[in-house]
Fold this protein.
Amino acid sequence: MEDTLAQHIRAALAQLPDLPAEFDPQAVAVEFQTPNNPEHGDLATNVALQLAKPLRRAPRQIAEAVASALGSVEGVAEVEVAGPGFINVRLAKDYVTAALAELLGQGERYGRVLDGEGKTAIVEYVSANPTGPLTVGHGRNAVLGDTVANLLEWTGYAVTREYYFNDAGRQMRVLGESVRARYEQLLNPEMPQKTLEDGTVVPASFPDDGYRGEYVADVARQLVEAHGEGLHEAKDETPFKQAAEKAVFAEIEATLQRLGVEMDEHFNERTVYDSGAVWNVVEELTKRDLAYEKNGATWFATGKLGKVETRDGAETPKDTVLVKATGEPTYRLPDIAYHLDKLARGFDRIVDVFGADHIATVPDVIRGVRVLAGDEAADRIEVLIYQFVTLVRSGQPVKMSTRKATYVTLDELMDEVGEDVTRFFFLMRSPGTHLEFDLDLAKEASEKNPVFYLQYAHARIASILRKATDAGLSAEGADLALLSHESAVSLIKELLRFPDEIRAAAEAMGPHKLATYLREVASAFSQFYRDCRILGEPEDVASARLALATATRTVLANGLAILGISAPQEM
RNA sequence: GCCCCUGUAGCUCAACAGGACAGAGCGUCGGCCUCCUAAGCCGAAUGUCCAGGUUCGAGUCCUGGCAGGGGUACCA
């Protein structure tokens, strides 16, 4: 519809007298919005206002000319010029009912759009190293990534969900050492102990920055059961590390499954070492004179690529370390190789979901990719940065650290508030805003959580449909033109926005937009429910209203499916 | 110091690539169940951090402050 109107508008513009020579009506971008004030019609455009300056004439004058050309467009009931020059369009009733019939026909496919048809996308998310259970912070990442992946699927993309991890770094070594210390302690409870700065009492061989979570001792216990003292002679922490990795990954997997997150691929960072891709990056950069040795380390000449450091108002080029003097690469190097790998796999869109602490590192990776694979390739990478989650308990912020075990796990959160609430809580806010998670509120007030509002509306409709079926009513062949009540009409219009809302949420990578929209749908339904009874009405009216209820359930169910939240039949 | 993100109702957050009187939830106050789920509906109150600027029009863009978070590492 919007495209049709846009074409008519361009045609009308072309008919205006005395157009400036450089003005091309076909090039005009015509934007429509759905006004928040119903008095302003169903669709509104501000083209006349936008064009006032280039056309050098009054906006209302342009608007009048355009408006008069839209009146005859099929499906348009009324066109008016309002305010400073807005063109407001009201849709014809039969256009609206025809669209509703179309919606009903599509059923569980309703809302799918074809923007990405035939294209592929990869979304990398979670990507927690196996050093401990997933925490609330990982939860935001997991749920955001998963939902963005869903949105891309609904917009036509074939999506791969990938979990990137590193089990070879320093963190893992410390974890292995932590397990070993606990293991030794189990074998010899009398062994010397020490007290860490936070008061924890640990075996003397426990690393000062070791992992203190209970799961570390659990792994140690399992090792004692399986091997007895057999590992006592191990020459390094390797067997302990491997046991820990296995146990932690199993737990992570279970947590994700519970959250409704299922990955397609797990990508081990080691892959880009084993294939030599990492050293290839260094070599290629060196060839281009963009990498060099200094003080025993290998540097990426990001300074030549525009990276600067500002101090006291003076800008100086800033290079970046790729390989430390110890021979150990920094994470940027494998990250570049990993992104080249994703590009080589041919994805049209490459989405990374990162916490705010990655903001500074992203540009380095992009620079590397740009140099080695070109602009087109680099532009295929999109990074969704989300701000941190602040946990609040008893009105106090909780400092979280996996090492110190002062974290709240995702499992604990789900135990307390449920999986649906957990997902919704992470999705209802824009990724760019800090998320304050008040545990007490989430626990105590979980019944008041907005997610129940959506689920309630769905359950209510399901109940009505059951009763209607029992009463022998059917929506089949309903005369939708009978839906004339104001509440019914605005509900229909709300439902018709669904595909656009999905597109908007996908483009912005902002699932919260969909969450907000679904609330509006539920609200519109509640009003319809209040004003228009179904059971007990004359059969033709009941049938039409039943069709509208069915359509509403479709939108709620499809929307909740995208958000990964259950749509209950009863509550 | 410098860079990035954020600052909207008592609290937590929306506001669709600047658009027409800034919207929800929770909380507060007041109404509504002889009728399909009251986990609901209806009504009331409270407002864009501060100072400039651009624009027909600014919560949205620019400049300068102030506040919170994150970066600025041969940690991830």
About this structure: Residues 2-91 of chain A form a domain with the Gyrase A; domain 2 fold (CATH 3.30.1360.70). Chain A has a mean pLDDT of 91.
